[in-house]
Amino acid sequence: MKGPIIREISITPIAIVDPPLLNAAGLHAPYALRTIVEVITDDNIRGISEIPGNIETEIALEKAKEVIIGKDPFQLNQIKDAIENHFDKETTAQRGDAPWDQRKIVHVFSALEVACLDIIGKIQGRPVVDLLGGKRRDRVPFAAYLFYKYEGAGGHLGFKTDSNTSGWDSARQAEAVTPEGIVRQAIAMVKAFGFKSIKLKGGAFEPQQEVDAMKALFAHFGKDVPLRHDPNAIWELETAIAYGRKMEGILEYFEDPVRGQPNMSKVRKALKMPLATNMCTTSFEDIPQSIAIGSEDIILSDHHFWGGLRSSMELAKVCETFGRKLSMHSNSHLGISLAAMVHLGAALPEIPYALDTHYPWQSDEVILGGRIKFEEGAVSVPTEPGLGVEIDREALARLHQNYIACGLTKRDDEVEMQKVNPEWKFKAVRW
Amino acid sequence: MKGPIIREISITPIAIVDPPLLNAAGLHAPYALRTIVEVITDDNIRGISEIPGNIETEIALEKAKEVIIGKDPFQLNQIKDAIENHFDKETTAQRGDAPWDQRKIVHVFSALEVACLDIIGKIQGRPVVDLLGGKRRDRVPFAAYLFYKYEGAGGHLGFKTDSNTSGWDSARQAEAVTPEGIVRQAIAMVKAFGFKSIKLKGGAFEPQQEVDAMKALFAHFGKDVPLRHDPNAIWELETAIAYGRKMEGILEYFEDPVRGQPNMSKVRKALKMPLATNMCTTSFEDIPQSIAIGSEDIILSDHHFWGGLRSSMELAKVCETFGRKLSMHSNSHLGISLAAMVHLGAALPEIPYALDTHYPWQSDEVILGGRIKFEEGAVSVPTEPGLGVEIDREALARLHQNYIACGLTKRDDEVEMQKVNPEWKFKAVRW
């Protein structure tokens, strides 16, 4: 029995308009970088995927071609082993200092795995969710993801931003710094997308200001809209406990208040609310200590960071086995990543917490048919074969030109913040 | 997109000739029971599987039809959830006292999952291993599985036993009680099948006699043939440590010397060799305590007991994450189970220890083409779509008649032993 063979892998870096969002690491640049990967078989079946953009990941993807071209896209175990064996141990283990924790080889395999699953689904006439055991729900719920931000919608190259969501476009461009500004942002986003949970990316202002924002959200939305706050690990242990106490009874969960598993474990013991993380437990290698010391209640997985969709299903089993809950982290992304997240979300045993997505903050799109619609805060699971989304080649070319023109090759929120405030320095722990 | 629909589930209990093998629970009956499950779609694609036979499992399978018929066989997550929701909690959690630890619902889902994977593979033109991420090896290694036994080949209903393995058939019928008898059995089995590792099922005689058998095997085969001993948890803690010490340097691993995770953990700390289990850590629910107290080094999984092939891949990830090794347990079985074990074995990240199989002890077969061949102790991974084995309907009918005629409805090694020795009683811990 002869299977299809991977004939070509196409790697296209793109830059997408991103608003000036604040976070503990600094400020989002006017463009966020993504990499679009296409895996093409000898019989011209094309699988696609999208991963965080970074010049080093693209170089590693280029190098991965040496061992992946010629392989059967069904042989995902062989593809994984080949990649791991092709890079030296130092590279495979490499992790960045930044909160988003770049790990090249994990991104490389995630990109290839999702594209191969798209191919397999297309060959079989089955949506990707069916390759993960099949769907457990028709719609996958997401949360409103609020950001402190400066005024503006991002972009500086003359490309017009657009939005299919009435009322949200102006709110998306507005400044949001005060508690009132955050509540206004939340009202507009919830109205436009129908989200039923709300998260604030914190770590941008001093703790009391952020606690006041959460209290203002609670005062407006009440206890039926679960709230989350994420200081991105920039708080001291004592700060996290003191200000965390002020949010007990208000938060559904408290995300990464402090840095590292041991500190997270201490905060978890001190506070009466669940702790979530995408910063202290971010790989299978981190799981044993997480279990030993109890560093969190909820792991915010991300298939781009955990080695793909099948690996994320394995993570779900690990979580189920050890009494952890699983939800999902995101970065600025477009519809290919969103589709993959939705297929995964549809297969997971449970979704106890609505998933994170930056999607409302983006206005570009790289898929045919334009931006994916949210209904009541949820996205319908595609039923077409594969991921169910296809590349808009005109949009891809334009966004790739954006990439070349904007001059960015990797994310650096510190440099961007220094354009606004030259004195600003990234601090792993600030308050 | 309309998928296939499960139209019919056929459940056929069979009885296969089994020799009078001794173990801690007593004596194998002249027939071992298996259940052959066939899942048939509306377009007449037929998926098959084989599980341990037990009247209660068959009743549960019959009841599972109420929620499974009409489902798409690709929707394995839905099938699992439907089964778990269809039986009350007491039933789903039910575990027997016997070492083989019957758990009805796990067997039910395992039977349906393997049969559905057979269907999916047939529809896709892909071997089942490709539904587990694809094969990492072309041949899957097994170990010689020695038993203390009385003379005889099993069977009493006039059905002729046969064997395709020259030299083994007479050794298979011979008594093996002394160290010399065990070595003779090992020589014949290794010669016939080419096994490169050897396991003795112990717990049948007092500890020194079994240690002497292991020493005799070591004296004959030398250090290049890894040896294992399995007292089936029938030893006291002190016995296991004292007699375990005598086998340090001889055993590749020591399997279930004592009962329960806390005792296993103590033996593991006391001895300088790896401990394996299929008795103290036998489900995902057992994993947290296993990790917390370190009850074993090696988990001997069994897809019939761990919820199927995909679940076994998840177990492999759990093992990899926590530094456990994974190998495979078996019961008396035929070629459908063996094929499923081989597909799983081909997909596993590693096979650090050759897998267990009772297959050489059986002489019946239920698949077309007769009994599966071993070469150098290994089985080649089927490359045909699905499991790559099909039911021999004449053999199935004959083995089902065997089932009706033999009068057994579940395994009971104690009753069988009492036919030889009326005073004999099962003891969970004997020495």
Give short descriptive properties of this protein.
homodimer; 431 residues; alpha/beta; Enolase-like, domain 1; TIM Barrel; 2 domains; 16% strand; globular
Write the layout of secondary structure elements.
The structure is a homodimer of 431-residue chains.
Chain A: E1 6-17, E2 22-23, E3 26-27, E4 31-41, E5 46-52, H1 55-68, H2 76-86, H3 89-93, H4 104-124, E6 139-141, E7 144-147, H5 168-173, H6 179-193, E8 198-201, H7 207-221, E9 227-230, H8 237-247, E10 251-255, H9 261-270, E11 275-277, H10 287-293, E12 298-301, H11 309-321, E13 325-328, H12 335-347, E14 378-380, H13 393-406, H14 413-420
Helix pairs in contact in A: 1-4, 2-4, 6-7, 7-8
Plain-language structure description:
The structure is a homodimer of 431-residue chains. The first copy, chain A, is of the alpha/beta class. Chain A has two domains: 6-126 and 393-403, Enolase-like, domain 1, CATH 3.30.390; 131-380, TIM Barrel (Alpha-Beta Barrel), CATH 3.20.20. Chain A contains 14 helices and 14 strands. In chain A, the strands form four sheets. Chain A has a seven-stranded parallel sheet, with helices on one face. A three-stranded antiparallel sheet of chain A has the order 1-4-5. A two-stranded antiparallel ribbon of chain A has the order 2-3. In chain A, helix 6 (179-193) packs across helix 7. The longest helix of chain A is centred in the N-terminal third of the chain and has 21 residues, at 104-124. The mean pLDDT of chain A is 94. The A-B interface holds A 1, 3, 72, 74-78, 80-81, 123-127, 130, 132-136, 284-285, 287-288, 291, 310-311, 313-314, 317-318, 320-323, 347, 349, 383-385 and B 1, 3, 72, 74-78, 80-81, 123-127, 130, 132-136, 284-285, 287-288, 291, 310-311, 313-314, 317-318, 320-323, 347, 349, 383-385.
